[in-house]
């Protein structure tokens, strides 16, 4: 009986060790949103006017809005989008990938 018990223990240990060797490991990589997308792209800064943006960056490819109160307007360019509240930039977002 001792031989069978010892054999079962040895067998279970060898399977346990095999499971440990065959497990997959993964690493999670976190990239902040601000660092995703194209690097070194110039976008309008907060506070500048629509006329300044159009003068410096050209006409947008698409305009959406204004929507809501306060009115938010979205100008879409190749590679980024500019959000305005009334006549001033509140945020510029670089498109992902």
From TrEMBL:
Alphabetical keyword list: Signal
Domain of life: Bacteria
Span of the signal peptide: 1-17
Protein name in UniProt: Nickel/cobalt transporter regulator
Organism of provenance: Kangiella marina
């Amino acid at each position: 009986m001792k031989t069978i018990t010892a054999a079962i223990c040895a067998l279970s240990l060898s399977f346990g060790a095999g499971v440990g060797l065959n497990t997959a490991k993964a690493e999670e990589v976190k990239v902040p949103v601000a660092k995703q997308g194209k690097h070194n792209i110039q976008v309008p800064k907060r506070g500048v006017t629509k006329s300044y943006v159009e003068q410096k960056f050209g006409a947008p490819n698409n305009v959406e809005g204004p929507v809501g109160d306060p009115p938010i307007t979205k100008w879409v360019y190749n590679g980024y989008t500019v959000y305005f509240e009334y006549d001033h930039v509140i945020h510029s977002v670089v498109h992902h990938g």
